[in-house]
Amino acid sequence: MSTHADRLAALRDQLKHDRLDGFVVPLTDEHMSEYVGAYAQRLGWLTGFKGSAGTAVVLPQEAAIFVDGRYTLQVREQVSPDDWQYVSVPAASVAGWLGEHAPDGGRIGYDPWLHTRAWVEEARKALAEKGAELVAVDTNPIDAIWPDKPLPSDAALAVQDDAHAGKSSAAKRAGIADWLAERKADAVVLAALDSIAWAFNIRGTDVSHTPVALAYAMVHADGTADLFVAPGKMTDAVAQHLGNAVRVHDRTAFAGALKGFAGKRVAADPASSVAAIFDALEAGGAKVLAVRDPALIAKAVKNPAEIAGHKAAQAIDGAALCRFLRWFEGEAPKGTLTELICEDRLEEFRRATGRLKDLSFATISATGPHGAIPHYKATPESNLPVAPGQLYLVDSGGQYADGTTDVTRVMPVGAPSAEMKDRFTRVLKGHIGVATAVFPEGTTGAQLDSFARRPLWDAGLDYPHGTGHGVGAYLSVHEGPQRIAQPFYPGGQALEVLRAGMFLSNEPGYYKAGEYGIRIENLVLVEPREIAGAEQPMLGFETLTFAPIERSLIDPALLTAGEREWLDAYHAQVLAIIGPQLAGEDLAWLQAKCAAI
C-alpha cells in the first residue's frame, strides 16, 4: 500500500471479493461535510488528491476522478494520469459518466452514508439504461483495505457561551419547534455538523479548522431534543449547558433511533441528510418531509452579538496579517523564503495574538505558478522558493471564539510586470464593484456575480470559481446557503436570496496557468441601505476585513474616480482600525501602504 497505484489495485481486488464491478468514492463524510475528519479522507488516501471537493469512480479497467475548475491544475499535479482519467464538473457528472462507462449488467457499489438520495436516484437511473445496478454496501470497501485508517476524533465538546452566540440553545430549539408546528411535523433530523453546533451552542475539534463535533441530533415539536455523540465527548460543563431538555445518546445509536418514528412526520434536509437516513426513517414507518434544514437560514443571518464578535475578530486578525505582510516584504528579496516558511510564519503571527483557536482552513501559500491553482496547498514535495519577479498569493484565515476570518492578499517580489498590474487592477475593480453594489431585497448572489467579472470580461478574461461564499460565526469558513456565483459553479446556492445579516466573501481573481495568480478577498456583511427616493427596501455590503491592498500592483490610470475614492476610504479605515494595534516600523509601514492612491 506504499503507492496510490497499489491502493487502486487493492481496491479492485476488494471489489471482486465483494462481487462489485465498480465503486464511487466521494470526498465527504456521513454529514455531507465539505471539510472532513482524517477518518473520512478516503478519496485522498486512494488517489493522492488533496483538494476539498472531488469524487472518484473505480471500474475494473478504468478509473476517473471528478473535480471542478478550482482543481483543474491541482489534480494533475497530485493524481497520476497513468491510473486516472481527469473529468471536469459540472460539464460532466459522475452519474452521467457511469451511465456511459459502467459495464453492461454491472453492479456498481456506493456507501449510502456518503451520498444524498438525489444522487442515488440520478445514478440509478443512468445505470439502468445500461442494465447496470447501483448497490448499497454495508461496509465501505476502502475501509476494508485501509490498514492504518485513523479513528474518528475523541476530543471533548466545548460550550459556545450565549454572549458569543447571541441566543441561547433553548431559544434556538424553541424556534425550530415553531417551525415544526407550522409544518405539522413531529421532529426534524439535524445532520449537518455546523447546524448541530449552532442549534446547541456547542463546538468541537473533530474536523480540522472547523469547530464542530461528530454528532447527529433530533429536535422535537415540544422543543426537547436528542443528541447523538460519542460518550467520551461529554463533560460536566457541556451536560449542565445542555440541560434536561436534551437527551444524550451514543452516536452509534442514531441509525436505530431513526426507525422509531412509525406513523410520525419527520423532516430531514435532502442536501445534508444522506440516503441512509431517509432509508432508515422510511423503513421505520415515518412519513418523511424532505425540506430544508431549519437551522440553515437562522444560522446564516447573524444576530448583533455575532456581528460585533466578528468585527472584533477581524480587527485582531487584520493586525496579525499586516505584521506578516510587512515581514514578507522585507524578507522576500533576500531569496530565503519558501511557501511553507511563509505559511508557518503567518500562523505564528496569528497565534501571537493569544486569541487564535485554529486556522479557518489550510493556508494557501502560493508563489509564482502555484498562485494559478486557486486551492493550492503547499507540501514538502511541492514547496517552491519565493523568487524575484513572482507574485506571492496568500489566502488564509483564523478561527476565534468570536468570529471566523478569511482574507486573500497578493504581494510582488520585485517590480511587477505591466501585465501583472493590469490584471491586478482589473481584479480590484471587480472587487470594488461588489463592495459598492446596492441592490433590492430579493436579489440573489447569481445576479451580483457579473459585477466582479465585468472588468476582466472587458479584456477577454475570467476566473474559474465563484465570487463569494457564506461564512459562519466561529463555524465553517464555507457556510451555506448564500453565495455570489454563477449558478453552475459548485459550492453553494447561487440562487439564494441575500438577506441582511449574512456574511459573504468578496474574492474575484485572475489566474495565468504556469505563471501567477491574483485574488483579492475581503469578507462583507449584507446590511440595509437607505437611498433617498427608493421605492423598495435596498441592501448593500459593509466591508469587514481590514488589511492594505498592495499599491505597487495597482495601475491608477485604470481606476475611475469613484473606485479611487473607495480605495482611499478603505485604506483610511484600515489605518483607523489596525493602526492603534501596531507600533514602530509596523505602524510606519501601514501608514505608507494606506496613503491616498
Automatic annotation (TrEMBL):
CDD domains: APP (cd01085). SUPFAM superfamilies: Creatinase/aminopeptidase, Creatinase/prolidase N-terminal domain. InterPro entries: Creatin/AminoP/Spt16_N, Creatinase/aminopeptidase-like, Creatinase_N, Pept_M24, Pept_M24B, Peptidase_M24_C, X-Pro_aminopeptidase_P. Residues 7-138 form the Creatinase N-terminal domain. Residues 537-597 form the Peptidase M24 C-terminal domain. Residues 310-527 form the Peptidase M24 domain. The keyword Hydrolase applies. One of its GO terms (molecular function) is aminopeptidase activity. The keyword NAD does not apply. It is an enzyme of class 3 (hydrolase). Its EC number is 3.4.11.-. Keywords: Aminopeptidase, Hydrolase, Metal-binding, Protease. Gene3D superfamilies: Creatinase/methionine aminopeptidase superfamily, Creatinase/prolidase N-terminal domain. Belongs to the peptidase M24B family. This is Aminopeptidase P family protein. The lineage of its organism: Bacteria, Pseudomonadati, Pseudomonadota, Alphaproteobacteria, Sphingomonadales.
